[in-house]
Amino acid sequence: MVPLLVLKFAVAGGGAYRYLCRYVRRSDHAVLGACLYAFSGFSIYNVFFNHFIDVVALFPWMLWALDETLYEQEEHYGLFAFWVGVNLLNNYFFFIGQVLFLVIYFICKLTTKDFPMNVRLFVRLAFESLLGAALGFVLLWPAVLSILQNPRTIDLSSGWGFLTYSKVQQYLAILLSWILPPDSPYITSIWSEGIIKWTSMSAYLPLCSLAGAAAYWQAKHGDSKKRIVGTCAVFALVPILNSAFYALNSSYYARWYYMPVLVLAAMTVNALEDHNTDLDSPARGISWLMIATVAFAVVPVKDSDTGSWSLGVLKNPGQYCAVLGFGLLGLLVYRALCQKWRADRRFAQRMTAAVLVFACVFSMVHIGIGKFGQWHTDSDLVEQDTNALLLKNDLPEGDYRIDTYKIHDNIGMWLDKSCLQYFGSTAAPSILSFYPGLGVKRDVRSEPEITNYALRGLLSVEYLITTPEKRESFEDEADAGWTYLADVDGYTLYHNDNYVPMGFTYDYYVTKATYEASVKTLRSNLLLRALVLEDEDVKAYGQYLTELPDAMLDDLHYDSYTQDCADRRAHSCSVFQMNNAGFHAEITLEKQNLVFFSVPYDDGFTAYVNGEKADILRVDEGLMAVLCPAGASSIDFVYQAAGLSASRVVTAVAIPVWVVYVAYFVRRKRRSTGAPAEE
Q1: So what's the pLDDT on residue 188?
Q2: Furthest-apart CA atoms within the chain: distance in Å
Q3: Residue 675 — pLDDT band, cuts 50, 70, 90?
Q4: What does DSSP say about strands 530-533 and 508-511: parallel, antiparallel, or unpaired?
Q5: How confident is the model at residue 679 (pLDDT cuts 50, 70, 90)?
Q6: How far apart are CA 209 and CA 618, in angstroms?
Q7: 544-554, pLDDT tens digit by residue?
Q8: What is the pTM of this model?
Q9: Are the C-beta atoms of 344 and 28 separated by less than 8 Å?
Q10: What is the dihedral sign for C-alpha 252, 255, 259, 265?
Q11: Are 132 and 641 in contact (CB under 8 A)?
């Protein structure tokens, strides 16, 4: 991983350098700005999310390509389209925000007359933008169709939530994230309230903070960089505008800050390069803002439980002192270098060296704070992952789900088994409606409580895995439906006594209205007794089932759960096999009925019953069922991401179009300059 991270930072610095060369007189200042960008607080923070650095690395190349297209009008045909396609294929999630930022960047440049513009140039830019999107369309279109199914979009009923954050601390955290070095991703020092952790909230420039950018702001008037940064600041402070960088996602993130960071780096090196710019007073002002945060260490606070008073709201004073110390030390060194060597031709080189040393030391402390803070939970991570590879070969054969108890995330991936405990940013959109309906939280983690025993039967969990150290705790907390099997490869293995094979039928159904009126904590039990049908499906498929009597809505407890599991098991698939295309199942029915599968509903699935295409019902607010005839049935679900076929065609056409487009203008340029064209 380390060599790959080194490469990413190198690519980030290289792209930033190419972009900044246009805005500085000397290349050594471009090198300085590239280091400020590549080793910004945002980059250091997101080493934790190491794949985010891919975006930091590739974005400057796209912004450079945009500048080249507009400033060098007869050069680099196809360059912008190429980098649009590359950034899109790299990460569609971040690309959404990049499109918005490019629009802001373009408008600000245009309104300050920094960009030349005419109809011909605008048409070229629009064409290359669309061509770049077409190059990445193979990813873009399926992603768009998936996002449209995602319920995590912004709540249109939120009222004031469109315009204001609910906690004042959120505003302070946003503002200071541009000034102070970042806290560790999951550790807060000052901000006990608000949405702070895991959000990538940092726009800090190493050593310089905002001192250089503030100096540039004072010295320039009607400048496009100021307009870009000012617009980004407004977007950061208004919830709906901030969410626009993520397709109106309702969850708060600041994972677009790396883009204005590049502009802040440009402003900083411009200020350092201009000897007429006052550097000292802005640096002093930023220092006093940093020192002002000490107020949070002495502000009186009253304990709501005991009623006693104490000083300070800091959650992690040691981390706060380290962050504040680095911030002040950086500005002290920055001021000293500016005062002593600003007139020296090697000033930029000395500043670059100081930035690199500072970034290196701070990153070690920053990452160390995070790692040592979680050492008590991660000390056995390597051991558990290694043991999981051994356990994979010793687990019983078959396609079933597993569950884990208080062991590391995503052990199921090592075992090549679907697991209830899962940490990951991607999930079938239907899961984000299914789980909340049961009272199970699902953001970036699926972590249903072990006390929700009925969910294990519904989702066909056959085995549970924990460690010998957690065995006693598990047996105290879990229900009686688990049988200890053995200690294998460093793990403790349990069998679910109420296991139901994947794919089964019901005798009863309930309407969505009845389901929503039921007690949320008992809905897992209800789902093992009856299938939840949408109103329109009741009309078409209700004839194959009986509506659940009201008396059976109240009889939801552990004993009835075991009987419901036995009933579902008696009418389950005899064969269930996952494959690279989806899954295959076989079942024999006494009468025509719906066969339920606890597989997340997705528009990309196509079902075949006995070789004939069949309609897929969305049941239980996010799972699937298909109608099968009486007798033996062979069922196949085949998955292909919705829109993938069409998007492949678009990308396949876009590639030769791009090649012809570039080749035409290269050939034309050679002819115009008198150079011989290659055959």
Answers
A1: 81
A2: 91
A3: low
A4: parallel
A5: very low
A6: 52
A7: 999 999 999 98
A8: 0.89
A9: no
A10: positive
A11: no
Distance CA 450, CA 470 (A): 13
pLDDT tens digit string along 649-673?
999 999 999 999 999 998 888 887 7
Beta strands 401-404; 461-466: pairing state: parallel
DSSP code of residue 624:
E
Burial of 64 (0-12, 13-18, 19+ CB in 10 A): buried
3-class DSSP assignment, residue 208 = coil
pLDDT in tens, 601-633: 998 999 999 999 999 999 999 999 999 999 999
Q: How far is the C-alpha of 626 from the C-alpha of 113, rounded, in Å? A: 60
| 612-614, strands of its sheet edge to edge | 575-578, 582-589, 631-639, 605-609, 612-614
pLDDT of 677 higher than 60: no
Kindly report the number of other CB atoms within 10 A of residue 509's CB atom: 23
Q: Which residues lie across from 531 on neighbouring strands? A: 509
Alpha-carbon distance 319 to 334, whole Å? 22
Q: Which long-range contacts (CB under 8 A, 24 or more apart) does 274-277 make?
A: 274/219, 275/342, 275/343, 276/219, 277/215, 277/216, 277/218, 277/219
Q: How far is Cα of residue 295 from the mean position of the Cα atoms in its chain?
A: 34
How many angstroms separate the CA atoms of 299 and 21, rounded?
46
| 72, 109, 128, 135, 227 from 122: Cα distances, Å | 14, 14, 10, 20, 21
Cα Rg, the chain, nearest whole Å: 29
CA 597 distance to own-chain centroid: 28
| Helix, coil or strand: residue 233 | helix
Is residue 576 a contact partner of residue 599, using CB atoms and an 8 Å limit? no
Query: What DSSP letter does each residue of 284-322 carry, written as one string?
Result: HHHHHHHHHTTHHHHSEEE-TTT--EEE---S-HHHHHH
Q: Are residues 78 and 665 in contact, defined by beta-carbon separation less than 8 angstroms?
A: yes
374: confidence class by pLDDT, cuts 50, 70, 90: low
Q: What is the Cα–Cα distance from 422 to 77, expressed in whole angstroms?
A: 45
